[in-house]
Specification:
Layout: H1 3-7, H2 14-30, H3 42-48, H4 69-78
Length: 79
């Protein structure tokens, strides 16, 4: 497969990447004490994809907590 095709296909590209971002946010939300939603499979989905295997899936893994613009505020919205 050409290098360009590898970058634009699979779960790590396009809407697949969005799905991984939303799943990571749902995984983080699942572990909050005041969670609005619980998704016990979200973290497994994130960890299964090499492109997102090192993303946070728990609030303790978010470096700046709620102040983090992606995993804190926007992640709470997605969750």
């Amino acid at each position: 497969m050409p290098a360009r095709a590898a970058l634009t296909s699979g779960v790590a590209a396009g809407v697949g990447r969005t799905a991984l971002l939303v799943a990571a946010a749902r995984a983080i939300e699942t572990h909050r004490p005041d969670a609005l939603a619980r998704d016990p499979l979200a973290a497994r989905f994130v960890r299964a994809a090499p492109a997102s295997a090192d993303w946070p899936v728990h609030p303790d893994q978010v470096p700046d907590g709620l102040a983090d613009p992606l995993w804190g505020r926007l992640g709470r919205y997605f969750g």
